[in-house]
Amino acid sequence: MDISVYRPGELSAADRAAWTALQSKAHLNGSPGLANPFLSPEFALAVGRTRRGVRIAVAREDGEPAAFFPFQRTAAGVGRAVGLGVSDCQGLVHRPGFTWDAQELLRACGLAVWEFDHLAEGQAPFEAGASGTFPSPVMDVDQGYETYLRQLRAQSPKFTRTTLAKERKLGRDSGEVRYVHDERDPVALRTLMGWKSAQYRRTGRSDRFAHPWINQLVHQLFHTRSEPFAGILSVLYVDGKPIAAHFGLRTERVLACWFPAYDPEFAKFSPGLILHLRMAEAAAADGIAYLDLGRGQKEYKDSLKTRELLVSEGWVTRRHPVAFGHRARRAPVRALRNAVLSRPELFEPADKILKRMGKIRSKG
């Protein structure tokens, strides 16, 4: 295996095209998860413009690119998945039948350790280092929206009936309901980011948009458009006013859900749920196979999903003191967080405390 490592700007147009081609054929080759937008060259290049240390390893067989491995690294050799903390799918994009040795790959990349938290299924050499596996719910629309809606009615009849009724009531009470699947107005994006920041603070969570690099990344991806990849801003309007919005990423077959939020003034109408159903309808019309709702237990995801993918978190390490030190620092934090999230008797009190703190901060 011949492995070369490039800075994002050094990747040739031919290599980028080969990377995209591997993703385009992934669903035909039995690896549909590799078509996820977070595994696209566009995402890696965008992160590379906002964060230091982004590199792309290209493995070649007989001179032809066979696999692409984007990562971030420090000078000490600590490696992370590209965009760790905001990326919902990670791993190595490869052609069918390609096998690799994780230790050899890390050595070629100058890494003592590589950390991931949303590793795609089927990455066996990396999965050996996984410390946990978690569901990532999806909405299948490859058979069309009406088929999806029939399945939703069968598995969640009350939820489906109530959500559609709320949409009708929203129109009667507040004015014309209009949905724009691919909104190009940057003002709408700023509105969404403002809602999301307020939601983070209200619920006591860390505000991702308080980090300048995440702001820059989202704006870059909003303006990134090619045949196989685009940042998609979807907005639900009532009487000309935005009341819910979502920004995500799409490839030819997958729409990755990323940042949804809504105006709390309209909370009683469940505008976020209405928005997701409209997104599913438009995505199906665009030939999208499924919407990936992302890792994390949420009631709305359980209601909308048709099935689940699995993603893993953990570390791939070499026998190196930097790897031991990094894992020793990070493992207890991850283990504690996952223990709280997986146990209702721990999560619910912690969630209430965070929301109470959020209310105190907002009043201050």
From TrEMBL:
Pfam families: Acetyltransf_6. InterPro entries: Acyl_CoA_acyltransferase, BioF2-like_GNAT_dom. Residues 160-301 form the BioF2-like acetyltransferase domain. This is GNAT family N-acetyltransferase. The lineage of its organism: Bacteria, Bacillati, Actinomycetota, Actinomycetes, Kitasatosporales.
